[in-house]
Amino acid sequence: MSKIMSYQKITDKFTTHTLREPDYEQLESEDRITELCTIDGITYVSVPDTVDLPKQPADIAKTLKAVSLTDDLKKQILDQSPVIAYIDTKVRGKITADVEQSQELRLLRNEINRIRKAMSVIEEAGYKEVNDKILSYRQWGMQEKEKLGL
């Protein structure tokens, strides 16, 4: 699992100073810190529990803090993060590559009919297989977001 942390980048005449990351070659884990996005000048990062942050420059350290993730902040990060957009694109790509659009539309029509009739669904051949694929791809996307602490 990961925790979300925030800090302010510091820009001077020559450089933008960012969070100092560990020397990953020295870590046993493959986990990495992921910058999620910047909202109103505050940068949000996902820090895996397996990664310890090294000592930070004083200007960065004084703004660095763990985030208490509210529903509103979570929504903002999910809406603005390029990393989350990439995960969502990968989910759609997996579905598109493996499930024909007509199959997915057929599933939706079946669901609508089921709701309208408020009766048991008459499953057509392949419904469960296609639905299971779509659900597994969406689950993968949710797991990727959870790894980032979202």
Fold blueprint:
Layout: E1 2-7, E2 10-11, E3 16-17, E4 34-39, E5 42-48, H1 58-61, E6 65-66, H2 71-80, H3 82-98, H4 101-117, H5 127-147
Output the keywords.
alpha+beta; four-stranded antiparallel sheet; two-stranded antiparallel sheet; 150 residues
Unreliable residue runs:
118-122
> Structurally, how many domains make up the residues?
2
Determine Rg (CA atoms, Å): 21 Å
Q: Per the principal axes of the C-alpha atoms, what is the gross shape?
A: elongated
Structural class: alpha+beta
Major sheet, described briefly?
4 strands, antiparallel
Helix content: 40-55%
Strand order of the largest sheet: 4-5-1-6
Total beta-strand segments: 6
Average pLDDT across residues? 86
The proportion of residues in beta strands is 15-25%
Ends distance: 10 Å
| Assembly form of the protein | single chain
